[in-house]
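Help: why these numbers?

___
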Amino acid sequence: MNITLHQLKVFAVIVGRKSVTKAAEELNMTQPAVSIQLKKLQEQFDIPLTEVIGRKIYITDFGQELYRIVQKVLDEMDTIRYKALDFKGILSGKLSVSVVSTGKYVLPYYLSGFLKGNPAVDLRVDVTNRSKVIKSLEDNEVDFSLLSVLPSQLQVTEEVLMPNKWYLVAPRGYPIAPRQSLDKSVFKDIPLIFREEGSGTRHIMQQYFSQANVIPQLRLELASDEAVKQAVIAGLGLSILSILTLKNELKQKEVKIVPIKGLPLKSSWRLVWLKRKKPSMVAQAFLDYIRQEKSAIYKANFSWIEQY
């Protein structure tokens, strides 16, 4: 049997991404090159690893069993590499963070300096909706999660990074009288664009409307803040969005903030981890870095939000 480590890495990414095309993108390889590595690995076995039905690839039961073994092999290879670096006094290891989708505007700035100072750290970031972020935290699959609203069902420890504020936004042509602050009752007549169920923005909006005893008029439900912004710009409705998602659109005057009594809604971006979890050496180093640098990072990159 002549199996290479490269073949195993390629196979693991194919299984994880459930696509040869997506695996090629992640590995920075051409699609034919990925297919060749999969074919060479398949030649070592009489039992199929994958099946192609239509244009979609499926992993066979045997392929799934092999994948579980491959993951262990690759983890052990990483351990060898990390140990070698540790003996040199170089911080190394994995750092995994799950992030709610709006958090993609926040996290890179808090990671950048740490990763530059510790290039041997391997980073894995999963950007998804709030429900999946909380699930990954609950299942102890990540070192940290980045959230704006704490999960009430879990015992967690938090490190507050910076403020977060949500405003009602409208397209630039939306009529608003100067200095007029509207009453929350206007939501009964405003066509609103919501994020999908499970998102943090949707959660915040629902909390607000529940506490305000208002039944809003839902026009659209979309899967990302970017899609919501484009729908607002196109005049399809209004929405409540985090100020962090609106920097360019406000600067270019594509949208404007509608003054409503009770808004903005306020919270904080928090780095969260399970209370019972003991941080790894890398996770603790990142936490120490955050505690030392978070004020400077906020001042350098996010102080602009204070004007709203």
The radius of gyration is 23 Å.
